[in-house]
Amino acid sequence: MDTCNGMPVLDPDLAHRLHNALTAGNEELFRVTTDPAMDVLNAVLKNPLLNEAHLLILLKRRDLTENLLKSVHRLPQVMESHKLKVALVHNPNTPDEISLGLLPQLFFFELANVLFLPGIAPDLKYAAERALLLRLPGAPLGNKITLARRGTSGVVGALLKEGDPVLVATCLSNPRLKEVDIVQFLNGPSATAETISAVARHHHWQSRLNLKRAILKNQKTPLVWFTVFLPTMPLSELKNLLAFRRLSGAGKREVEAELKRRGLR
User: Fold this and answer.
1) Dmax over Cα atoms in the chain, in whole Å?
2) I need a labelling partner for 87 at 20 to 30 A (CA). Which of 28, 53, 81, 216 fits?
3) Phi-psi region of 133 (alpha: psi -120 to 50; beta: other; left: phi over 0)
4) How far is the C-alpha of 248 from the C-alpha of 264, rounded, in Å?
5) What are phi and psi of 192, to 5 degrees?
C-alpha cells in the first residue's frame, strides 16, 4: 500500500480485486478464492453469494492464516454444514481450539481419518484417538474390523483387548500393533484358546520370546503350543516356567518332559 501526503493509497489492482471479491457472482467466486491476498479472501467472506461449495474450495488451501480460518469458523454456513466442519479440522492451519471443539461432531471414520492427517498436531491426534476409543464399544463389528486393519497403535491395541477372534486375527496383521499390547492381551481375561492360538501361529509374532513366555503361562493355552515352543526356549526360560505357580498341571508336565529330554531331570 502506497502513501500520499502521509495518507495510505490503496493499490488500484488490489482495490479492484477487493471490490470484485465483495460483488462477484457465484461462478466468479470460485476463481476469487484462489487469490493470494488474505485481504481479498477476507472480503470474499462478506460476499452475500458465498456458499458451502466456495468455502470447501477455499479450505483446501494450505496457506490460509489462523485469523482467516477463525473468520471462516464464525460464518453461519459452517454452523449449518457438516462438510465444512470436517474441512476446517483437516486444514493444518486451523487453530487447535477450533479443531478440538469440532472433533465431537465428526462421524466415526472421520475421526479415524484425522489420526492420519499430514502434519497433525500431537494434541489434536491424541484428542481424536481418545474420542474414537470412547466410541469403540458401541461400534458395529464391521467398523471395528476396518479400523483394526488401518488404525493407530492405540486403537488397534484397544480392539485386540476386546478378544473377538475375527478382530484379533485382523489386529495381528496391522503393522502398527505393538508387542506390549499383545502381551497384555495374553495376560488378560479376554484371551481364549482360539485367540491364543491365533497369536502363536502368526508368522510375524510366533518367534517373539516375550510372546512365547506369555502364551505358555496362560492356563487356556492348548498343549500343542508347549510341544512347538518348549524345544526352542532357553534353559533359563524353562526353569522360570516350572517355577510359575499358575502354570497348568499339563503344562508343568510338558516342561518337565522337555527338561528330561535335555538330560536335566
Assistant:
1) 104
2) 28
3) alpha
4) 21
5) -125, 170
- Under a CB-based contact definition with an 8 Å cutoff, are residues 183 and 214 in contact? yes
**125 is written with which cell numbers?**
491426534
pLDDT tens for the chain, 265 residues long, are 555 555 565 688 899 999 999 999 999 999 999 999 999 999 999 999 999 999 999 999 999 999 999 999 999 999 999 999 999 999 999 999 999 999 999 999 999 999 999 888 899 999 999 999 999 999 999 999 999 999 999 999 999 999 999 999 999 999 999 999 999 999 999 999 999 999 999 999 999 999 999 999 999 999 999 999 999 999 999 999 999 999 999 999 999 999 999 887 6
Residue 8's identity, in one-letter code, is P
Residue 192: CB partners within 8 Å, gap ≥ 6?
A: 163, 165, 220
241, three cell numbers: 516356567
Residue 240 has which C-alpha cell?
Answer: 522360570
Instruction: At 46, list the grid cell.
Output: 462478506
